[in-house]
């Protein structure tokens, strides 16, 4: 009896745990969960669903970490460079979320010049990316759970397309130019 319970618990950990390689994250057609995010400072809370509901067509990118080389030099700049083309394709809002605190996200946005182009959203405890099933264990490198690198096209808070880097941190299918070709 106890053996069976342990077996079941182990299976649950394998399925729900960060090490399982699976693709059960939020799917096309699903409504975004309503989880508070922060923008600018910890006291400025934003409801994820309200943010994306108000904007007809939005792109949300998730990144492993503010100020990390790949995110700072390649991934987020690809969306800054493509901002005019994204607008032309009817994207009203581009937002970036990371498991970092709001002050770090603000400073990162200032360093990259995202103002007016990309909303820099903080998910300090990772509740939002966990709810999307897009968190991974990055304790060995970045000290905590982080967001897999992803991009999502969202219309009225419903996921229309989703791209997730298969190794969590690579920069291939989530680059702006790849997304643009598919819009
Ligand atoms: C990056 O450069 O984007 C990166 C570095 C370490 C861990 C994850 C991402």
UniProtKB/TrEMBL annotation:
GO biological process, one term: hydrogen peroxide catabolic process
Protein function: Thiol-specific peroxidase that catalyzes the reduction of hydrogen peroxide and organic hydroperoxides to water and alcohols, respectively. Plays a role in cell protection against oxidative stress by detoxifying peroxides.
Organism listed in the record: Basidiobolus meristosporus CBS 931.73
Protein's recorded name: Thioredoxin-dependent peroxiredoxin
Coiled coil regions in record: none
Domain Thioredoxin: 26-183
Molecular function terms, GO-annotated: thioredoxin peroxidase activity
Record keywords, A-Z: Antioxidant, Oxidoreductase, Peroxidase, Redox-active center
Pfam families, per database record: Redoxin
Lineage of origin: Eukaryota, Fungi, Fungi incertae sedis, Zoopagomycota, Entomophthoromycotina
Residues annotated as catalytic: 71
GO cellular component: mitochondrion; peroxisome
Protein family membership: Belongs to the peroxiredoxin family. Prx5 subfamily.
Matches recorded under InterPro entries: PRX5-like, Redoxin, Thioredoxin-like_sf, Thioredoxin_domain
């Amino acid at each position: 009896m106890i053996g069976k319970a342990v077996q079941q618990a182990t299976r649950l950990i394998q399925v729900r745990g960060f090490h399982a390689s699976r693709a059960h994250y939020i799917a096309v057609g699903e409504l975004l969960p309503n989880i508070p995010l922060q923008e600018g400072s910890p006291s400025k809370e934003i409801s994820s669903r309200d943010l994306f509901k108000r904007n007809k067509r939005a792109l949300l990118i998730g990144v492993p970490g503010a100020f990390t080389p790949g995110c700072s030099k390649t991934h987020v700049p690809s969306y800054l460079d493509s901002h005019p083309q994204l607008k032309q394709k009817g994207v009203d809002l581009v937002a970036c979320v990371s498991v970092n605190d709001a002050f770090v996200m603000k400073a990162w946005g200032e360093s990259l010049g995202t103002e007016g182009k990309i909303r820099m959203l903080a998910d300090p405890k990772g509740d939002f990316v966990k709810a999307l099933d897009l968190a991974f264990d990055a304790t060995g490198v970045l000290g905590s759970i982080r967001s897999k690198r992803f991009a999502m096209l969202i219309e009225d808070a419903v996921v229309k397309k989703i791209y997730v880097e298969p190794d969590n941190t690579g920069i291939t299918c989530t680059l702006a130019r790849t997304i643009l070709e598919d819009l």
